[in-house]
Design a protein that fits this description.
alpha+beta, seven-stranded antiparallel sheet, four-stranded antiparallel sheet, 171 residues
Length: 171
């Protein structure tokens, strides 16, 4: 019986040492940087209850690569039906940027949105347009100065800042 216990302990130790602690290895996640992937649909001014739309209208399966004569076929290379990206809405309060809880104040038009401490936007591949499509909106429920922050490897990259009423967006 002791031999069985030692054998079981040895097997469990071996498995715990050899198992990866990286989610990316289990899920086979690939990270990439694609300039201009997400477009923010800005307008001259925003008012309370306007929708701030984000989309991937320009995310073709064929992407130009520096120093290459033929575009990269992302769909064929990755065999992926979806691509996801993370962002959040922040509001300036007393000179500091704070995360805005979106709750149910979002609209899914194309793709999917998952709401938590940040928004996970999921663009789905469309066979007809040969593009990955996403369009999601955040309802702006209060006046103030806001910005969208995109999260890349948990580093915040600030892409846009705008004053919600009555001035024009700042870039």
């Amino acid at each position: 019986m002791k031999t069985l216990q030692y054998t079981l302990l040895f097997v469990l130790l071996t498995l715990s040492i050899s198992c990866s602690k990286e989610d990316e290895e289990f899920y086979n996640a690939v990270y990439t940087t694609i300039p201009g992937l997400v477009t923010i649909e800005v307008q001259p001014s925003f008012e309370v209850n306007d929708v701030l739309w984000l989309n991937t209208d320009t995310f073709s399966r064929y992407l130009a690569e520096p120093n290459q004569t033929t575009p990269l076929d992302v769909y064929r290379t990755t065999n992926s039906e979806t691509f996801s990206f993370l962002y959040r809405l922040e509001k300036q309060v007393n000179g500091e940027w704070e995360n805005v809880a979106i709750g149910s104040n979002f609209i899914e038009n194309k793709g999917e949105m998952s709401i938590g401490n940040y928004v996970t936007g999921v663009a789905f591949y469309n066979d007809v347009t040969e593009a990955y499509e996403y369009r999601g909106g955040i309802v702006l429920t209060e006046s103030g100065q806001y910005r969208i922050a995109f999260l890349v490897d948990l580093t915040v990259l600030i892409l846009i800042s705008f004053q919600k009423v009555p001035t024009v967006p700042h870039f």
